[in-house]
Amino acid sequence: MHGYYHIISINMELKISHPFWQVMGLGALAGMRSTSAPVIASHILSHHQTKRLDHSPLKFMQSRNVALALKILAVGEIIGDKLPSAKDRVKPVSVVFRMMSGALAGASVYKATGGNPATGALIGGAAAFASTFGSFWLRKDAVKASNVTDPFVGAIEDALVIGSGIEFSNAA
User: Fold this and answer.
1) C-beta separation of 132 from 90 below 8 A
2) Distance from first CA to last CA of the chain, Å, rounded?
3) Which residues form the DUF4126 domain (predicted)?
4) Which domain holds residue 60?
5) pLDDT of 8 strictly over 60
């Protein structure tokens, strides 16, 4: 499997055959759940550490403690999204945060694979931007068309993000 997301682990060294598609996918997930992309990237990088990040500001993404802290934040985001006080993801500060999330994951993956982290950041951030608006309108339309409550549709979205994250991680 894993087509465009084909990841091979040899001696715990991370080998990603198509980082562009990996980062596009992570950016898309960041648009749906802002913490998802760094959680997935950090989880993978903490289990497949590379020397390419050793002298980089992105080295922290390989830390198992960082991976755990990000997972805890992600659970908080999933819970907070269901509250009536949750803000729309298309508010400017939320859009920027999601883009930064996609950019961080993208830069980390590109740097870890020997690519230019700025390229990864641009791809991840752009994918997060597009996904933020696409997933927002898709969710609104799904609620309207199905007469299902927004928190339930949000739970389905959570399941898609979590399932995708598991698939990314299992591919590593």
Assistant:
1) yes
2) 12
3) 23-163
4) 3-171
5) no
